[in-house]
Amino acid sequence: MIDRGVTCPLHRASPRSVAPALVRGRQLLRVGLFAALLSGCDSGEARFAPARPDRGDDSGAGRADASEQKDAAPVAGDSGTDEDDASVVRDAGQACGASAEERSFAAEVPFSDEGGYSLTTGLAGFGLAYQAPEAGCNTIWTVPVHALGMIGDPSSVLDDCKTISDLALLRTDSGWRMVWVDNADDTAELQTSLLGDDMATPAGALRTRLTHNQLREERPVLADFSGTAFVAFIATDRVTRSASILGQRLAGSSKLLEIIPESAGRKPTRLALTQIGKSHALLAFIDEHPDTRGIWLQRIDLEGAPTEDPVKLSDFAGPGSTIDFATRALGEGGAVLYSATVGGENNEVRFRRLNATGGLLGSEVKVVGAPLQARDGSITRVGGGYVVGYRALPGGLVAEPQIRMTVITKEGRISRDATGALLSYPIAESSPDGGRVSVRLSNDGVLLFGFVDATEQSTQLRLVRKRIECPPVID
After folding, report:
1. Distance (Å, rounded) from C-alpha 422 to C-alpha 419?
2. Could you tell me the residue range of the domain that residue 329 belongs to?
């Protein structure tokens, strides 16, 4: 079930080669760590060549139409030109070099869109939880991804046959907190467990029931709220089919709270959750109700109580829409990334910058747009900006679907070449379907991409890691 792949020797830059580039100052520093400019090994060779971004002219990997892509305007007050940003990215790559050391992991999983697996960053490395068949049952498995991105062996963490659907995973000070939906007898109860550092041994009760009611729980998401795990999920009335979004701190005697009440008349389908600042948190949700359709942002306090009315990010929401957060150091805000289908035909990935309390900064930025087609976007902080991973679909010069990545600054400036074409980098071939891509960065500089490939023959969960070698970046 585990494919170790090919190991490529690291291409390390000497301090002498790095120093001249660093004197370019803050402009270089803000994207210095983006120097991964990721590349893998040629299948028949165990060597590594400095990566070159695909511009669509020699690899079949999509070149943006410059006039269209330039519509993704920078946030007001950000200076520089597209050519300047492109040269900074190139110089950063020359200074730091690119290095890759790739492993892959694949497991047969039932297709359940993005609810069937959860990938998160740990204290050193990552944690993965997913549902997969075992002796005729849908069982939860966990996989530790250790320091330097070494992928461990999977463990079954439930000792009996359960009917599992959506799940979420979070690293806490006490261990790995996991929540999932148990569909036994069609009860759809939300349950939780705390696992030890090995992700295989329970650190407390094997399972604790969080809900027991006539509602159907689904799509749980977890976030760390000042050291305490917080879960939010969709709850749907079995009779009326009306839905709400509920939340709860997983500590002490905390009780469930209504974040989005049933009376609001919404139809949430996907959620994202994060703390931002000392006392604020954000819940984002996709709403597919005809009267309130869109992608929404709800600010809440650390107990889960709403502090203001929801704010609409986009009018475009549908079955293929996804949403993700990335936050920066305390007091520096973050970003929200979402995928939407525009006009019923153009699949786009868009970005909004967030201030220190979760408010919106600047205008919406189109990261990937027509004639390129992209969906299932995910975002993670890297140095002075962000890495955006997404599923590239056929369109423009893209012939086959791929998992790709691009880099943007924290202000939302997009990496382009001198002609205005989007700079993006191939990660892996993929199917056109499978739900949100997850891209996460570990504390030791490993980018990990998780995604599901859904085909007529099988549905596979895949992990691909990429190693960053570059000096520390200071924003």
Report:
1. 9
2. 108-465
